Structures are given as structure tokens and as C-alpha cells.
Amino acid sequence: MALFLLWIIFGLGVLIQLIYLLPIFGRTAFFNSKKQKEQSENEEGVTVVISAHNEFKNLKVLIPKLFEQDYSNFDVLVIDDRSRDRTPRLLAEMMDRYPKLRTVTVKYTPDHVTSKKYALTLGIKVAKHDVILLTDADCIPASDQWIRKMTAPVRNEGMTFSLGFGGYEAIKGFLNTWIQFETIQTALFYLSFARWKAPFMGIGRNLCYRKSFFMDVKAFKDLWHFEGGDDDLFINKYATGKNTQVVIDSDARTISYPKDNWKDYFRQKKRHLHVGKQYKSQDKMKIGWFAFSHLLFWAGGIGLLIYLGLEQNWEQFLIVFGIFLVRVLLVLWIYSSANRKLNGTKTRSNILINDFLYIWYFWGLGTFSHQSKDIKWK
């Protein structure tokens, strides 16, 4: 009976995992950019919007990089959200150097709203152009084609939303290896489901939509009281298969410097995971079924290997081990291909270890984050 139950657990996990890895995640991993339809270029105006709180060091690097973009019709709007460092002075100096740089200053945040959403709302309201391209102060465009490629679905294809990828700089250490893995895992979820005409989230590090739509839906109405969610909850509420497109191109990504210690990383991920409980039920199931089947696969597989080893049932032991090996190779194939598409680089090592650790990340940190109440932006 125990053996039969372990086989059921393991088999169910394998079946659901195969569905996610091939028909779903494969939509991103094996995306063929050469098959994209050629669109007539329309250089409609674009406003790059950045909300910044005490981001002097990052803005000093980012702003000059933005004005290296190969796109003729754009401006940059930086929202100075109650900064107490040298950000105001830097922005004043930068506006003298870059005529297309504009700023909005936020001096206080009302009690009934969250700070970043309030800052973004004030900025987007006064944005010069209808096409809004969002990123964060600690991000750098990966190429001078970022604006052109990220906004193309909105400018040329009539889309309301364009979802992009935000990667992290590769540095030494296991924490960074994990960050690279988890970032690709998250991208496989939201980009793949969006390509399947079922978008459910996006990231504020690389997101484009129309100002007119933002104003029509009254900005972050019904989302003000959630800390975070200015990107994923907004997309979760309004994005559909008909108004949303993804951009899978390493030239269209942004690059951020990753957290370099576990304490800061856990604080960041706690904030990100916390808003996930506000997703629509069907969208929570998209992530939940993967995590559940992932747990079944590892628990059932390890349980079977131990049981069959003790029983010296080597024939079935080799079958289970073979299935494990096939999935390992499949995961390596999917994640390596997705990484090449999104980051334009080779995959870091330790995929098998990180794949196992994802169980503890999702069920441990995820559960803790859902129960947390001390979530803050900055």
C-alpha cells in the first residue's frame, strides 16, 4: 500500500511537471524571434518613468545611460519621492545637461495610500507622452534598443501592456546563483502564461503601458492600501490575452545589481511574495499547481528511492532514477534555453540544487511572506 501511494504521488508530480515544463514554459524557452511579424515602425513619443527614493548613486549612473537610447522621440521623468540624500541636487544638475529630463517632487504621502503608487500616479499624470515605460532607479537598460523594443507592442501593435524581463548582474557566490535561477523561474511563469493569452503579472523594472488607460481606470483604484503591487497587481487586474504582449529579447531587458546578503534578499522577496495572495484565484492556481506538483515530484521520488532501495527492488529503483534523470535534463534544457533568450548568456551551475531549494523557498518563505504585516517599500 505504501509503495502504491508513493507511485501515485510521484506519478502525479511527474505528469503536472511535464505539462508546465514543455507546453507552458516552452513558450518562452523556445520562443523564435525570427517568426515575429514585421511591423511598420511608428516612433510615437515615449516617457520613461522612474520613481526614486534616496537613489542618488543609482540615478547618477542610470540617467546618462537612458539618454544613450537609439530612439528619437522620448523623454525621462524622475519622481523624487521624499529623498533625503543628494537626489534633488543631482536632478537639478542633470536637467541642465539633458533637456529631455523632467522631475516631479513628492514631499509627503497621504495616510490612506502607499508611497510608491502615490509617487507613480503623480508622475504618470504629468507625463508628456501617452506611452509610459517604467523601470526602477537601480536598473540599467541592457542595450540602446531598450526603448524601441520594449514599447513596440504598444506603439505598433495596438497593445495596452508590454511585459519585459528584468535580470540581475552575475557576480560570484551562491546567493547570486540562486537569484539568477529564481529570476528565470519567475520570468518563465509570467512571460509564458502571457504568451498563452493568460497574463497575470509583470515587473515594474521593465513594463510598458498607456497613460490614457492608466487614467481611464483611475490609476491604482482598489489597490492603494496594498504595499507593493504597483506592477504585478495592476497587471493582474487589467491585463488580458487581447491587450497584452511580451517582449522576449535580450536587448530589451533591464539589468539590476542584485542583493549581496541573505537578509536584504529575504526582505525584498518577502515584499514581492506578500502581494501574491491578492492575485485572482485562477492566477494563484497557476503558480500553486506548479509548486504542488514540484513538491510531489521530489517527495514522492525520494520516498520511492529510499523504499525501493531498502526493499532491494533494483528494477523499479532504476525506473525512478531514470525518470529523475530525464527531468533533470529537461529542466536544464528549459532553463538554459530561457536564459539564452532572456539574458543572452549561458546558464549558471547548480540548477539541480536550486530546483530542490525552490521547494523550501516557495513553501517556507512564501508562507511566511503571506502572513507578514510589516511590509514596506522604502
From TrEMBL:
It is an enzyme of class 2 (transferase). The keyword ATP-binding does not apply. Residues 47-211 form the Glycosyltransferase 2-like domain. Its EC number is 2.4.-.-. The chain crosses the membrane at residues 6-25, 287-310, 316-335, 356-372. Keywords: Glycosyltransferase, Membrane, Transferase, Transmembrane, Transmembrane helix. It comes from the Bacteria. GO terms for molecular function: glycosyltransferase activity. Belongs to the glycosyltransferase 2 family. This is Glycosyltransferase. It comes from Algoriphagus limi.
